[in-house]
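Lab notebook, design round three. We kept the backbone fixed and only want residue identities now. Task for the bench partner: fill in a sequence for the structure below.
Input structure tokens:
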């Protein structure tokens, strides 16, 4: 009996996604939550590993991961929407936009501002993460390299998500 009820509920959910509020939020918004929760952990781990293994600068993984969380939270939830709004576009997350009305100009301005902010926010975390404090003078180039790589990758992912339902201009 319980199995049949479960099947009917599942069938109802499949046939009527509005019942589950499956349309709540935009792909940009939901991907940013995934980015905030899990992807930042992976990004911080990769960045720490690159600095440790390629540039031979020993560091604390957890401090670098913490810096990634701080910069993502500030950059994507405050700075990017703010600068997008200054450009005249108030819907950085695409919550009010319909397919074809999301404006990429606001996205580009917001993302560029959040990238610059992430460099400023994360650098002190990287600076503190070093085990050998005398290596701090060698940190700038590796820091910029790993951040450029990871931010470019995240920009491309967000751009693909935003561009699917966006307009140019």
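Proposed sequence:
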């Amino acid at each position: 009996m319980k199995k049949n009820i479960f099947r009917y509920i599942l069938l109802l959910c499949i046939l009527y996604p509005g019942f589950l509020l499956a349309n709540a939020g935009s792909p940009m918004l939901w991907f940013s939550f995934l980015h905030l929760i899990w992807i930042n952990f992976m990004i911080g781990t990769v960045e720490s590993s690159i600095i440790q293994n390629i540039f031979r600068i020993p560091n604390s993984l957890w401090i670098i991961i913490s810096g990634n969380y701080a910069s993502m939270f500030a950059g994507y939830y405050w700075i990017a929407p703010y600068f997008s709004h200054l450009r005249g576009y108030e819907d950085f997350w695409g919550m009010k936009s319909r397919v074809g009305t999301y404006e990429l100009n606001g996205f580009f301005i917001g993302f560029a501002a959040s990238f610059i902010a992430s460099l400023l926010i994360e650098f002190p975390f990287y600076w503190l993460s070093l085990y050998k404090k005398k290596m701090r003078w060698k940190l700038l180039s590796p820091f910029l390299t790993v951040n450029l790589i990871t931010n470019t990758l995240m920009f491309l992912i967000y751009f693909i998500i935003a561009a699917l339902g966006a307009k140019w201009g």
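Keep this in mind before ordering anything: The chain is about 70% helix and 0% strand.
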